[in-house]
Amino acid sequence: MRCLPAILRSFAITLLILLVFASSARTEVEVRIQEEIWALPLPLPMFAYLVRPVGDGPFPLVIMNHGVSLKPTDRSFFPLVEFRDAAKWFATRGYLVVAPVGTGYGAAAIDIPERALFGPFFSKVGKCTNPNFHDAGLAVAQVDLWIIDFLAAEKVVGQSAGGWASIALSSVNPPQVKAIITFAAGRGGRVGGKPNNNCAPHKLVEATADFGRTSRLPMLWIYIENDTFFGPDLSKRMHAAFTAAGGRAEYHLMPPFGNEGHFFIGSPDAIPLWSPLVTKFLDAQK
Hints:
This protein is of the alpha/beta class and 286 residues long. The chain is built from 7 helices and 10 strands.
């Protein structure tokens, strides 16, 4: 099946990259890759973009998951993959990459209360007066676990959930997952479309600390200085709370990128900036 063209949309992207399997990635410069579309038969079935080296493998598995939009109309136009160039970067280094399209996106983004029609969207955090960041993260982490179990059993492909869900996933320490990388992770950013207006920053920091109490996986957190969803002050507070609680996370704040740093991972121009950090981190996990 031919892959649909990737279209970058202005959604709040919190991406995670999960490294699954202990085997290390190959580092050939010239690696032929192929792109595919899969249907994953999970308890909540979903489509997934897949890119991998040509050949039989086996290949170490990378799961990449997109962020969220709380507007059903926006979710209905969500692209098949938001970070195609980043996914291809991993594939050319010997990884098999799967980017699932979450339920409640694309054609499944139905929300017509007057007709009692609702899509299976489960990433809401509730009202800003008392948001539940914790359970929203764990809900997507559960989807990640389904994907990991399915693909590990099949020895094929898999990819994980948004940056916040990856932090949540780290708190349960799945044995198949060896390392986690997040870009601009968080929830509740830009309330009402206003920059640097988080829903409840103290609640987000508290939930991050809660995940850190049990998380023991090595992590790389990448944030960007001009991210108006999760700015430097908030991301540093999250990291401090996470590590103080016992979590293992290496924090990097990148210089400003473009007009809005939050969409850093979606730009091919950003690859030369983040790839040295990611390469160094991956090499340290071998």
